[in-house]
Specification:
eight-stranded antiparallel β-sheet; disordered N terminus; four-stranded mixed β-sheet; globular
Length: about 240
């Protein structure tokens, strides 16, 4: 993929400065967005990046009271994206997995069996996806942010969701001029998705600490309070059938 560096810079502007000019990636451009955001997905929450030079880091560390030994800045570990690249399509699908699909179809496109499988749900921990079924066919898709609690695996161990390999792709004809992804503040998400039909406030007491759900036609966008963000950020998507 060419021109990765300029697109990376444009994506940073689009995510963290909703008033600045933005690129308009469509279709296959999602692949480029996913590729260049892998290294920052775990740490970028539109916060200022600490200095990375050895001299700056040593200066900060040496000025800490009670600690005479300079210590270099160590960025958070990068969490790799997991699974096939999947575009979130409101009201329809993630990637090639459309409403009406069977569990067998989901597993074929996901390239492996569900981590948790019942007659109602197929859950993938690493890929951060849940597929819900009604009468044997896919009726809702949930995409989770990195680190959300995911319940127990087959061995009884509590798990957390990994790093989803995709985003809401841009489609100007459908009113989505920009890619929308995890970690965005409400202003940045609105630049990509438009104004929500309604905003549902929540108390933040649930397992994901969700404080608001923005309702769009065929898509619910969940805003969570997370420890490394100064304000609620996009941390969940629910793909639902479009309203009448």
């Amino acid at each position: 993929m060419t021109n990765a560096a300029p697109r990376h810079l444009l994506l940073r502007v689009a995510r963290c400065r909703p008033d600045a000019p933005r690129p308009m990636p469509v279709g296959a451009a999602l692949l480029a967005v996913v590729a260049v955001t892998t290294a920052t997905a775990a740490s970028c929450r539109c916060e200022q990046t600490p200095p990375t030079s050895a001299s700056a880091s040593a200066s900060i560390a040496s000025s800490a009271p009670g600690d005479p030994t300079p210590k270099p800045y160590l960025p958070p570990p990068v969490v790799p994206r997991v699974g096939p690249v999947l575009a979130i399509v409101p009201g329809e699908a993630v990637g090639p997995i459309y409403f009406g699909a069977t569990v067998a179809t989901v597993e074929r496109h996901m390239q492996r069996a569900c981590d948790v499988k019942t007659d109602k749900v197929c859950r993938y921990f690493g890929e951060a996806l849940e597929f819900f079924f009604t009468e044997g066919v896919l009726s809702e898709i949930r995409v989770h942010g990195l680190g959300r609690p995911a319940g127990k695996d087959s061995g009884g161990t509590e798990r957390k969701y990994g790093n989803f390999n995709g985003a809401v792709d841009a489609d100007p004809a459908a009113g989505r001029p920009l890619v929308t992804t995890f970690g965005m503040h409400a202003e940045g998400a609105a630049a990509g998705l438009g104004k929500p039909k309604r905003i549902e406030p929540l108390d933040g007491q649930g397992p994901f600490h969700t404080v608001a759900v923005h309702h769009y036609d065929g898509l619910l966008v969940e805003y969570d309070r997370i420890s490394d963000a100064r304000m609620p950020v996009v941390n969940g998507f629910r793909v639902i059938r479009r309203g009448p």
